[in-house]
Amino acid sequence: MTIRAAAIQLCPVDFKPELTLQKAEEYIDKAGKEGVEIAVFPEGYLPGLAEIRLAKQSDSPEKLAEVLSALEPVPGPSTQRISDLAREYEMTIAFGMLARAEPGEQPTNVSVLIDSNGEIKNIHRKVHLTPTIEAPDFTSGVEFAVSDTKIGQVGNMICADFSLPETTRILAIKGAEIICGSFAGFYVDPPGVRGSVMQLFSNSHLSPARAIDNSVNLVMANMVGKTGDLEFFGMSQIIDAEGNVIAKAGEGDGCEELLVANLPDSAELRDLPFRLIDRRRPDLYDEILIENSNYEEVEWN
Question: CA–CA separation, 13 vs 228, rounded Å?
């Protein structure tokens, strides 16, 4: 048996959250008609980053506060619409959005995991915030959770959360069989730095080693196209638990697509010939918890 998975590689409609949401609904319809059982959206897809970026560049605290205060809560009207479609198509969905937190708190960058019955199973708040993009205006998350869904045990994370191997390991130890990744990877300049970003994305964030080491499937959806002052490069991937990149989306503007592939289900994962995670020796790993003396609290202002 297999699980039909989709990475939905899209670009928001700048300054038009309703059109952005309608676009998401259209792609869920497409996925549903293809029998997709789990679908993943990019990071911050709703409402996108354009308005927040413009507000930050305006150097107006009042304007930024106005934009951030307009972000939707979770649960809220938009997640209800996504939940209704999840129920209609019996599809688990990891939906990336910028959300309003509790009154008086900063907003959060979240991946909302919705089960096939329309129930919100987990609201993952991005733990590793990106300088100038989110910090210091967003609240970071403090945990990694695995949710029991119709298709099995699912974990969901956001972009830089994948840049450290401990995160996927934690989800795997907690029983994850599929890990959903929502990304907003964009080109940067100068060329030397751009190359470093592409290496980081390809060989760290989306590393097949994350799948092999943890015996998990990965469904990774990146934003694509131009939004605001940024250009997102796409290259979404679906990777099976043996590290095979079984589907890869296109790169650059004009490459919006529904990337679909079949992944091994729970029974197949248990029968993998090499389950490296089963060879763990936690009795020898105390050093991994030694304090990181190189980490410093950075003033982002």
Answer: 10
